[in-house]
């Protein structure tokens, strides 16, 4: 039985798992979980994961949540000497990958997601723009994360661990593309970041990169989807939490 991946490509962690499985030719069944219609709260998905978030992987009887754990599982299970660079056996290179994967949760992911929600989702749900001071503060946090990314994690290297792409670059690019999907050009005036994005895109292959990011580059269709599926009321408490 092929591996099952439960995904919605609006989600950054889902895109990293999707791209990795495709790029490394791991056979899998794509199980679509439509977040915009709340499918993650349905009975069927509840049997797969009580966490009710995507991505989820099922390999036979083994079910795994958390994108980073899934990526490492796939890299370790299907890894070959040719694909070692994704999650290197070398102690210090692997530690560098883990360093980025540990840092990003509360930095790049948290800050990029907040800007995405403030620009794309909150206005749909509340009917008005996020107050300027809140937006400015969210942008400041994201700017700082991007600065740390460029200065510490990239420095003058082509990729985070050096000459080769790794899981760290993959997890970074999908998070950075989330606010970009709202029309924010984060690469403008950031030549180091832009050149790295181009290298990552080339390594992954433009077609795969674009296939994975197509839905997030079309966030303009979300308001209608939310309205059609009665998600507006449901999402309001989430938004309130964000402002507290
Ligand atoms: N730390 C988790 C985060 C998973 C996560 O937050 N998934 C979001 C989409 S990006 C989700 O499924 N949200 C559904 C919800 O909260 O209702 C991972 O890396 O897999």
Written description of the protein model:
The chain is α+β, with helices and mostly antiparallel strands. It folds into two domains: 3-84, Glutaredoxin (3-Layer(aba) Sandwich); 86-236, Glutathione S-transferase Yfyf (Class Pi), Chain A, domain 2 (Up-down Bundle), CATH 1.20.1050. The protein is built from ten helices and four strands. A four-stranded mixed β-sheet has the order 2-1-3-4, with helices on one face. Helix 1 (12-23) links the parallel strand 1 (3-7) and strand 2. It is globular and about 50 Å long. Glutathione (GSH) binds next to helix 1 and helix 3.
What structural category arises from helix and sheet content? alpha+beta
What count of domains describes the coordinates?
2
What does the average pLDDT come to?
A: 94
Ranges where pLDDT stays below 50 over 5 or more residues in a row are none
Using only C-alpha atoms, the radius of gyration works out to 18 Å
**Largest sheet entry:** 4 strands, mixed
**Distinct ligands, ions and cofactors found in the model:** glutathione
């Amino acid at each position: 039985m092929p591996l099952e991946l439960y995904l919605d490509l609006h989600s950054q962690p889902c895109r990293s798992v999707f791209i990795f499985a495709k790029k490394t030719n791991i056979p899998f069944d794509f199980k679509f979980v439509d977040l915009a219609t709340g499918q993650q709260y349905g009975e069927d998905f509840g049997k797969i994961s009580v966490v009710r978030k995507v991505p989820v992987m099922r390999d036979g009887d083994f079910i795994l949540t958390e994108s980073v754990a899934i990526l490492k599982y796939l890299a370790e299970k299907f890894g070959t000497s040719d694909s070692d660079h994704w999650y290197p056996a070398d102690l210090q290179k692997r530690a560098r990958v883990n360093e980025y994967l540990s840092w990003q949760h509360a930095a790049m992911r948290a800050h990029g997601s907040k800007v995405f929600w403030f620009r794309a989702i909150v206005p749909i749900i509340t009917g008005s723009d996020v107050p300027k001071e809140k937006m400015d503060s969210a942008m400041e946090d994201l700017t700082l994360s991007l600065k740390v990314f460029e200065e510490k994690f990239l420095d003058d290297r082509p990729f985070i661990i050096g000459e080769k792409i790794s899981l760290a670059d993959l997890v970074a690019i999908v998070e950075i593309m989330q606010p970009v999907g709202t029309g924010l050009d984060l690469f403008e005036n950031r030549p180091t970041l832009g050149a790295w994005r181009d290298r990552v895109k080339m390594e992954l292959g433009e077609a795969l990169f674009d296939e994975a990011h197509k839905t997030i580059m079309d966030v303009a269709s979300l308001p209608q989807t939310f309205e059609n599926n009665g998600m507006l009321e449901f999402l309001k408490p989430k938004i309130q939490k964000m402002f507290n």
